[in-house]
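Hey everyone, long-time lurker, first post.

I ran two proteins through the pipeline my lab uses and got sequence/structure pairs for each. Pasting them in order. The first:
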Amino acid sequence: MFITAYAPFGDKGILIRVETDIRRGIPGIDISGLAEGAVKESRERVRAAFRNVGLAFPLDRILINLAPAGLKKEGAALDLPIALSVMSAAGLIPDLASLPEQMMVLGELELSGRVRPVRGVLAAVAAGLSDGIRFFIVPKENEEEAAILLARDNGREIHYTAVSSLDEAAHVLVMLTKEGSFPAALRSAPVPAGNSNESELGDFSCVYGHARYKRAMEIAAAGGHNLLVFGAPGSGKTMLARRMPAIMAPLTPEEAVEVTRIHSLAGASGENFSFLTHPPFRAPHHSASAEGILGGGRTIQPGEISLAHFGVLFLDEAPLFKSNVLQAIREPLQDRLITVVRAQGPVKLPADFQLVMAANACPCGKLGAEGNSEPGIEDEFASQSGDCFCSPEEIHKYWRKFGGALLDRIDLRVPVAGNSKMYRQAGKCEETSAVIKQRVTEAVEVQRRRFDRENITCRRNARMNPAQIERYCKLTKKADQMFRKAAERLSFSGRAYHSILKTARTIADLDRRETIDTEHILEAVQHRRPGDDPYDVLSIQP
């Protein structure tokens, strides 16, 4: 008989059968099945844990097999299943064959016998449930994480318990073989609270001006569109972008479980764990490597684009990112997943995210900035403070890092002028995040009902394929004529053509209109036009 364990790999991981054979020979422990460093070291932790909880370790030759043998196993989550498997083979606890059915065990061991939390418990439980497992033993610190799925699986009776030490785990196994269930089985453990931290994000009402930028963010949040904002340093690009989660609609329960599972694999556990009910917002530093952004490693782990699944990936100072990283994002933006290929085979990681990029308009940052016109300042200084020192060649080289193919996938482009009256104007009140979020949530619900009614696996307007665009982006006669003129005059690519229609569909949803009208098309075109030329920032009036 065997105990089922789990090893993270990709976004789902693999189930591992832990088998133990004890035979006569020189005392020692052999582990087969491509065990890596931390797994091989478990034999020393298990031996010390036995002694420190008052159990006699078998003085025989012990062989532990980890199947499937052809896949590498890493991490310390196999400690507890190995220890219980050795106990059963040595007769210290009842034979595993007497268990009512298959069981999954997770946990790392300290030398004292204490069970430590491990990462990927939510993903492990999901994989176990898919394999028909109904009995689970998890570390005490991972109890709430396991409860997310186990409390939701209403189709079957699930037995699970959380243990804090090796002897406690042995006790629950004894009770399981005698009574057929865990002692005081936790069938209705509380689900951890969601990650509602909107008060920490900052409010839109605290940012004055930038009406065009705020409108573009509202459209992006409602339809899942990609966004580029560029302009002078200090103009508020990053400040507003980091407030975007405050206006985004909450995740559905199914989306929340999927997002939380991915973050569990990335290492969020114990006190740092929370049930992610709001879209994630990831903002990696520009020095991040390609593997850090895309995912990978010796054992393939999710990268930033997968951690931004159903949320936002924000690239601040985007031209400073390595060119290979920026260009590698293009395929996941289109396919909504990324395939990482290694020697052991390809692994598909989810990457249904929306991209938000912020950049200066030129390397020195002065392009689009205004001179200081305060009274008392020398005219010469006022002139210099707003002048750009970059040559046209330097500016275009700076923008070539984006590449035309990546920019073509950006639905909304927003130039932001420097010093654009970012102060409170008398008698004018800025909209709060709550007001904008209400409109966004209503538009998102319209999209969900539309696609659910047609049984279409599409989350947002930005994800529609050409056939769905033809079906759902109905234009009035006047809007159609206006769009054809704009497309002919501005020479839009095929992707830009579809992008404008999808953006117009989102604007119409925000207006609660079933048909796309002229004003929706014109606004979508105006949001699409800038960005191909950095000098567009000069046309924005503060």
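...and the second, right after it:
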Amino acid sequence: MDAPPTDPPIGRSPLRGRSLAAIMLLYAGLLGLSIATWVNSRRVIESSASVDHTKDVLAEIEAALDLVTRDTALVRGYVLTGNPEFLAEFDATGENVYAHLKKLQRLTTDNDAQRRPLAELREACRTRVGQLAELVRVRRDQGLDAAIALVSPRPWKMVRDAAGRMERQELELLAHRQRVSTSVFRSAKATLAAGWAVLFLQISLVVILLNADFKRRQQGASDLAESHDRLRVTLRSIGDAVIVTDEKGRISFLNPVAEALTGWKSSEGEGRPAEEVFRIVNEDTRHPVPSPIVEALSLGRVVGLANHTVLISRSGREVPISDSGAPIRDDHGEIRGAVLVFREMTEQRRVERERAEARKIAEDANAQKDRFLAVLSHELRTPLSPVLSTIERLERRHDPSTELGAALRTIRRNVELEVALIDDLLDVTRIAQGKVAVRSRALDLHEKLLHVLDNCRSEAAEKGVAFEAALDAPEHYVRGDPARLQQVLWNVLKNGIKFTPPGGRVSVSTEAAGSHRIRIRVEDSGIGIPPEKLGRIFDAFDQGEATITRRFGGLGLGLAISKALVEAHGGTIVAESAGVGRGAAFVIELPAMARPADAEAPAARAVARPSARWNILVVEDHTDTAAAISDLLREDGHRVRVAHDVETAFALHEESPADLLITDVGLPDGNGVDLLARLGAVRPVRGIVVSGYGMEKDIERSRAAGFFAHLTKPFNVARLEEAVDQAMSGVNPADPGESASRS
């Protein structure tokens, strides 16, 4: 079979639409003409009736006046002759006159102008009738002379005047109504003439359009045959496989590509159910997949296949495919069949598998990199921990103004610098992976700034850099992560000190930046930033020039980390500089608020050192670190025992239960996290983790295990003492994962 027998949908012809509209317009014209004829007829009838009504009024006035005139003549004859025959038709009561007056009243009810003249006519008639009756009586009783003496023309004049006024008004009304009637009649004739003219034009238009529509249908039949030819050529030529079915889902056409993929010739598949020719299963489960043809016919919309569908050809060959089925509708929207278009996906599936394998390799490599960084961090931090603890203990014992005190500060500062570099490397990794955790609470940003300023003051003083602070922002409370915001402030301030030569200055100021916004400006008089470098100053590992890196050191990560952390708090950070040698400024804006009810005062977070001394068990496989921690705690008066593995720690706890466990995570024979639960089975004990592993997941694991704090190596003496005091007093730490470099 060369082409599908199902006719393709043909859109509505413009001519057909115009013909239908013209016919509907013709019907509307006939209806309009009928309505206009009826309306005009009603108007003609009503205007004629109003003319007749006026004539009736005039007739009644004339009749009433005639009766009065007749009675007057009869009475005059009787008065002059005395012959009673004149009184045979005389109406002494005026009953006939009053009957006409009553009819006049009914006829002029709708005419207010006639009310007063009618009343005058009624009164004049009553007076005239009464005068005539009195003349008759006087003539009969007193004679001719007495009757003549009573004759007066005034009542009769009153009747004529009143009747004349009514007649004049009615004649004017009659003339007006005759003019209106004539106008209505002419309008009706014009309307009917125009209506018939329009109707004739509409009939002519319908005839023309119907004739054109008939010709279009003849042309359409020819076009349809040509369309079938084009459709046959198109379906056979396209690169995708095409299957066409009737409304019952029976095959009516397969193009050559569909024949090749299914293994069925179009003539062989004709009339067969689509499921027999187009057999599809799920590639993984091998379960049959519902045919999109059946679904397209039942749902009446386009239906696509799910992924991992394979076509089983007539010979049993399996071909991965993707497809979509759609219903075929006629001009009236009725479903007359379905069309299925599909293509072979063998190459695409191969590419997808290769991409999936490459993605897995990349993810595995990324996981290995994370593990490497974690181990590297642990191995770098662990030997620094006893060094930092020992330096701080020595600083406590020696005068800071001596040469030894200065040397100790130099060593400590460089150890802290190394720790900061390690932290920055880990933070960049977290930021790249979108794993930076922000634990928000209300905090005083001025307090954080003052804390960082105090920590940086000694370094600035040694370098000869002056500090200036003007904290004037009225709203200086923000909602954010205390440790992360302190890290941002630390990075920006350290950056200013780092790039400012001796004798320079670093100023810190705060101010309002619009409604509920705070602006922190850190400005220095240092080496400045070239204009072309401002755009990438926040890029990781970029410090502007290679000579700057060699001169000042560092990895160029602090500003990149600060930008990510500020944006995580809903803020912005920008760099400003007038050029090389003219200093630089970093402007941070954050959402601010008035002091909230849940904000803690600084004094409320301070922890009083307990007077009691505790039985502490230190478990650390790094000998130097264990010695440094235990020596520090013993100097504070605590009873300290040291174990280098899990079993020894458990034995010491069974012998004499400890109050506090300070343990590393990785131990030779077990895990410090599991050790807390094992010791707690003997007697409850509080725990602090000290570890070179400081990733977010490491801190979360410690918290989930019940540890009070997670100290990342190396930590300073004050941080360890604070953690011990907080753990034993039950005060929750501000940030259990804070390291020495951020303190």
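Reply from user beta_strand_b:
Welcome! Quick read of the second one: The CA atoms of residues 496 and 524 lie 6 Å apart. Residues 14-213 form one domain.
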